[in-house]
Specification:
The complex is a heterodimer of chains A (334) and B (257). Chain A has 334 residues and is an all-alpha fold. Chain A is built from 14 helices and 4 strands. In chain A, the strands form 2 sheets. Chain A has a two-stranded antiparallel ribbon with strand order 1-4. The radius of gyration of chain A is 20 Å and the shape is globular. Chain B has 2 domains: 166 residues, P-loop containing nucleotide triphosphate hydrolases (Rossmann fold), CATH 3.40.50.300; 82 residues, P-loop containing nucleotide triphosphate hydrolases (Rossmann fold, 3-Layer(aba) Sandwich), CATH 3.40.50. In chain B, the strands form 2 sheets. In chain B, strands 6-7-8-3-9-10 form a 6-stranded mixed beta sheet, with helices on both faces. In chain B, helix 3 runs parallel beside helix 6 and helix 5 crosses helix 6. Classes of the chains: A mainly alpha (334), B alpha/beta (257). The interface between A and B is medium-sized, with 29 and 41 residues.
């Protein structure tokens, strides 16, 4: 078989698989309980955050421990605009994403002069600061109790309240962000991102020498990752029906990085596998133990599972097919 | 040989100190259009530092560098590239996380125009541009004889192929001035000769080449003029035949006897 035929056959196979997975995901709420639906919603929301982080960390090699702050800024802006300014909830969601993008742009300029661990340290400091501010600025954020009873997302007069509504919303949003990201990573932007990834064999000096404005590329990806997190935060607040400083403590930033590392940061699918695995493990532990084990032990068990996965699969779960001898269907590409 | 054209690059009393170490000391010279200018000097004489100053990887402590009337001091390296200067690296600095063709394709980044949304939404303008980027990269790989290595990972390339890929990546940016930092390090005698022919071919095509090299035989053969550095100072400048006779150069570099 010629290479062209093989490629064509492969693309038909991919299309078939895509349609099958799409149908399955669309029909899934018919079969599963709202508990499972809510788990899937959380997986989707966290995946949006880790997807951005995957671009930033996995492709461009810049570690951010500040994603929880962007999630929080997106969430709070959405809620505050809907509640206090009477903005149309969808408009608030968009404004939350936009404002977070602006914040990321302004902060990214100085932050991204750093790289590696120093960048991780300033971003985690920022995440802590935002969580503390959210607790202190009572007039705006409702302090530690947070905000609730705000107008929720609706289509016409039909308010989105049920789990399956949010299931479809999250599915649609995540699919769009995933496609956007996939287009990015296989484009010139993806190449420029990999060129600045010091940890994977890139070189900023070399990238600059052939005309890549490396600070601009890093800043763009930083902003994109922040906007993804903000969209997730806005939908999260609408789904839960409240937002408070505990919903986005700096601890979440560390968990997001942990999720992308176990999922596999070198592959966009890792950004979905990671949160799926994290939430499944967390829920399984709490189902099995029914709260019968002292608080904190869940984290210990989760930590042990995480370490085991990383010893066996240093590249994350997304590496598994290659380890088992299947050639990635993408070849060298993402 | 008289070349009346104004210089394409002029280095005016450039000094670079690293703490107490003076790596480049009040060096001045001009590069004329369409010449091969060789820079030689013992290890640590400041040759690579000079290239890093021209590409503004770091700023000079004092002195100015002009390229076609543009002052390079204060520019960022990608801006220097967009003016028409490209380079390779002694340690090749090939992007190990992408294939050979992708390495070369990065060279088109500076002149590509489609924005983030065009790329993310996969618009037609993007697809057209991506095809052009691919073709430009492929043409340079083919020109350098790497057409069969496009999909290869850089770690599977030979030393010579990696040197060529570094040059291909630079050529994709369509420079007028090409800076080559030891492009034949680690190559066999025959490969060195081929690289020399390639540099002469580039000059024939109208490119100006600034070449740093340790292989004296090769650099003497292909350079129109030579600059000799020692301890950061320029100790001689002239045609290869003159340099060969220069007492100071012989003492500093070629060795007596």
């Amino acid at each position: 078989m010629s290479r062209g035929q093989r490629n064509r056959q492969r693309s038909w196979q991919k299309l078939g698989a895509g349609v099958a997975v799409g149908l399955f995901l669309l029909l899934l709420p018919l079969w599963v309980s709202s508990y499972i639906q809510s788990i899937l919603i959380f997986i989707g929301l966290y995946s949006m955050v880790t997807l951005g982080l995957c671009l930033l960390m996995g492709y461009a090699g810049q570690i951010s421990l500040g994603q929880s702050a962007f999630f929080g800024i997106g969430g709070y802006t959405t809620v505050i605009l809907s509640l206090k300014c009477g903005v149309w909830p969808w408009g608030s969601l968009a404004a939350g994403a936009f404002l977070t993008g602006v914040v990321a742009y302004v902060l990214g300029k100085p932050f991204l002069r750093l790289t590696g661990f120093p960048l991780a340290v300033v971003t985690v400091a920022f995440a802590m600061l935002i969580a503390i501010l959210a607790g202190r600025l009572d007039f705006l954020t409702g302090g530690h109790d947070g905000l609730t009873n705000f107008p929720r997302l609706s289509i016409g007069t039909w308010e989105l309240t049920k789990d399956f509504h949010y299931y479809y919303l999250v599915l649609a949003a995540l699919s769009l962000l995933f496609l956007f990201s996939k287009n990015l990573v296989r484009s010139k932007i993806g190449r420029a991102m990999r060129a600045v990834d010091l940890f994977a064999g890139g070189s900023e000096t070399a990238a600059q020498s052939v005309g890549v404005n490396t600070s601009e590329i890093k800043l763009k990806i930083f902003v994109i990752a922040a906007v993804y997190a903000a969209v997730a935060g806005g939908i999260y607040a609408n789904y839960i029906g409240n937002i408070h400083p505990g919903s986005f403590s700096a601890w979440w930033s560390i968990l997001f990085v942990a999720m992308i590392v176990i999922g596999g940061s070198g592959n966009l699918w890792g950004a979905i596998i990671g949160p799926a695995l994290y939430i499944s493990i967390r829920e399984s532990i709490s189902q099995f133990t029914r709260g019968g084990i002292p608080a904190g032990w869940e984290s210990v068990i989760f930590g042990m599972i995480l370490v085991t996965i990383l010893i066996l699969l240093p590249g994350g779960i997304a590496e598994l097919p290659r380890k088992l001898g299947f050639r990635g269907d993408e070849g060298g590409d993402p | 040989m008289v070349n009346a054209d104004p210089p394409i690059l002029s280095i005016n009393t450039v000094t670079k100190n690293f703490g107490g170490l003076c790596a480049v000391n009040r060096v001045s010279f001009n590069v004329r259009p369409k010449e091969v200018l060789g820079i030689i000097g013992p290890n640590g004489s400041g040759k690579t530092t000079l290239l890093n100053l021209i590409t503004v990887i770091f700023p000079p402590t004092s002195g100015e560098i002009y390229f076609k009337g543009h002052k390079l001091n204060g520019l960022r390296p990608y801006q220097v590239n967009s003016l028409g200067i490209a380079r390779n690296f002694q340690d090749d600095k090939i992007f190990l996380n992408m294939s050979a063709i992708e390495n070369a394709m990065v060279g088109s980044h500076g002149r590509s125009r489609v924005g983030l949304y065009g790329v993310g939404l996969h618009l037609n303008s993007y697809k057209k541009e991506e095809q052009e980027i691919f073709e430009r990269a492929w043409n340079q790989l083919a020109f350098l004889g790497l057409e069969k290595k496009g999909d290869t990972s850089p770690s599977a390339l030979s030393v010579k192929e990696r040197h060529l890929l570094g040059i291909a990546r630079a050529l994709v940016t369509e420079p007028e001035l090409l800076l080559l930092d030891e492009p034949v390090a680690g190559l066999s005698f025959k490969e060195t000769e081929e690289m020399g022919d390639l540099i002469l071919l580039l000059r024939e095509r109208g490119m100006t080449v600034l070449l740093i090299e340790h292989r004296l035989q090769m650099i003497m053969n292909i350079s129109d003029r030579l600059i000799v550095l020692n301890f950061g100072c320029k100790i001689a400048e002239g045609a290869p035949a003159e340099i060969r006779e220069n007492e100071e150069v012989i003492a500093a570099y070629l060795g007596k006897g």
